[in-house]
């Protein structure tokens, strides 16, 4: 039975979240004057005109002693050492892969930074170099950690732990990197039945929880068996919940996704895509439960 | 059975290479191809003119298995559309305009009515001119002349779809036979590409034509026989077009063994071939076009046509309902536009 729904556009209402906020942040838009005091040094995101310090990006003003900079909120991913990212292989080059991670430059995954299948520890040889494409091809998704940042801003990744590696069946969602909350761990097994990797670069990967938790294969064996219907429903519902949270600019972390999931259970999965229900889930279900979460 | 085959032979299927369909061939074969050609050449060959996403093999497998079981990635069934947002009268200096957001896909259509000379072979009719512009806003590949190929393909598809005589009442656009007629310039602007372009554009075109207001003109004859055209002073004195028979395009993408309606960019990357079917509100087909590199089985073509007719009728009903609702709000409607 074909279902076609259409609606008239609704003007956006500013989000009202009754949650305890931290200290008030100084938000600026491009062209706003930050300060007229000439004693400050200008950092990223600012420029000086007529003795005034003016913002050039839309974001939050950060001040460190005498340095003022504006940290943009809607920006490409700026990597830090230790971040967990989900990336897509774009190129296979000599001894390294180029990985797309929604940053300004493609990230680099060196051949020496991956685990060899079988877990051997040895120097990479010419045979390993020729077999690179058997390991990771263009289009493959990987989860990795940022090892270091080059001087030009490109990230160097590594998958040296057994929890990182190639990702198999699941769903990828791309959100703004500022919406992913920094936490101790970014790999979550939600009690509803799906697992989620919240990459710091804004790439969210939802996949069915695998039963063998202790299978330490190093992540290069992909499971190509069909996923069961119940798992698929849970994954679709989690996906729609994440899209709802992102539309309302709420931070993404495991508890927020879980609360949104629980609030969405009375509705059918496909109806969650309709924005009017976003407001119901985002308004009632979320605002009250978000207030319970410590920021 | 033989007569169906004969019908198919008569139907001309044009193979447009616009959709980027990464075939679900064995990974060994694709690897061989890549090794021989080098990466950039293969990417250029496969990229085509549509903005497409690159997916890994397990991701594609997940999508294909989901379609087999009638549960797509966002929870829709195979015959469900994403929720569409339609707004008309968004551009003030056009005779009619509409903006449609189908999921991620964002289309803006403006219709301008200008005076012109009728075509020689049809002296007592006006006509429509289509122009599709793929803005670089949609994807960086459309920068400069990158979007031209896709734009010309969409334009030619729309000429075919509207080539049927009853789609728009062209005789009502005539002012003076052989001398003056209204020409409707339909300009389509692609703002964001989120999959399923043809359907979204056809919905926007129908909404814009519904919204078009053509000023009423009177032809005055002088004593010497020269004709003068007088525009009425009242800006609200205008004629509206009858859009009952304007067709809507339904794209059916073949994924695995089933077909889906309203494919997202990821689903389009998994689909081997698609069928574009244009349906009127009464369920009549005005044109069919096959796109993609894969092949379609004759049985599945008939199945897809039947689904297209069913879904097309539902699409017309929903669109007409929303257009009537918008019309009934009248001046009290709060215009959202682009900054709402």
Instruction: Look at the helices and sheets of chain A and give the structural class.
Output: alpha+beta
Report the end-to-end length of chain A measured between terminal Cα atoms.
44 Å
Number of strands of chain A: 18
Q: What would you report as the Rg of chain B, rounded to the nearest angstrom?
A: 22 Å
Q: Report the radius of gyration of chain A as a whole number of Å.
A: 22 Å
Low-confidence stretches of chain A: 275-281, 283-295
Portion in helices of chain B: 25-40%
The DSSP helix count of chain A reads 5
Please give the largest β-sheet of chain B.
6 strands, mixed
C-alpha termini separation of chain B: 55 Å
Layout: helices, strands, pairs:
The complex is a heterodimer of chains A (295) and B (340).
Chain A (H helix, E strand, L loop, with lengths): L5 E2 L19 E2 L4 E3 L5 E2 L3 E4 L2 E4 L3 E6 L2 E6 L11 E10 L2 E5 L6 E4 L15 H5 L1 H4 L5 E9 L5 E4 L6 E2 L4 E4 L12 E3 L4 E5 L4 E6 L20 H19 L6 H11 L10 H18 L3
Parallel strand pairs in A: 4-8, 11-13
Antiparallel strand pairs in A: 2-7, 3-6, 5-6, 7-8, 9-10, 9-12, 10-11, 12-13, 12-14, 15-18, 16-17, 17-18
Chain B lengths: L1 H9 L16 H11 L1 H9 L9 H12 L15 E5 L7 E7 L2 E12 L10 E8 L13 H14 L12 E3 L3 E13 L4 H15 L1 E3 L1 E5 L5 E5 L6 E3 L7 E8 L2 E4 L3 H6 L2 E7 L5 E7 L6 H32 L11
Parallel strand pairs in B: 4-6
Antiparallel strand pairs in B: 1-2, 2-3, 3-6, 5-6, 7-10, 8-9, 11-12, 11-13, 13-14
Polypeptide structure, described:
Chain A: Keywords: Cytoplasm, Exosome, Nucleus, Phosphoprotein, RNA-binding, rRNA processing. Chain A: Residues 27-64 form the Exosome complex component N-terminal domain. Chain A: Belongs to the RRP4 family. The complex is a heterodimer of chains A (295) and B (340). Chain A has helices at residues 126-130, 132-135, 229-247, 254-264, 275-292; strands at residues 6-7, 27-28, 33-35, 41-42, 46-49, 52-55, 59-64, 67-72, 84-93, 96-100, 107-110, 141-149, 155-158, 165-166, 171-174, 187-189, 194-198, 203-208. By secondary structure, chain A is an alpha+beta fold. In chain A, the strands form four sheets. Chain A has a five-stranded mixed beta barrel. Chain B has 340 residues and is an alpha+beta fold. Chain B has helices at residues 2-10, 27-37, 39-47, 57-68, 148-161, 197-211, 265-270, 298-329; strands at residues 84-88, 96-102, 105-116, 127-134, 174-176, 180-192, 213-215, 217-221, 227-231, 238-240, 248-255, 258-261, 273-279, 285-291. In chain B, the strands form four sheets. In chain B, strands 1, 2, 3, 4, 5 and 6 form a six-stranded mixed sheet that branches. In chain B, strands 12-11-13-14 form a four-stranded antiparallel sheet, with helices on both faces. A two-stranded antiparallel ribbon of chain B has the order 7-10. In chain B, helix 2 crosses helix 3 (39-47). The chains are: A alpha+beta (295), B alpha+beta (340). The interface between A and B is large, with 48 and 50 residues. Strand 1 of chain A pairs parallel with strand 1 of chain B.
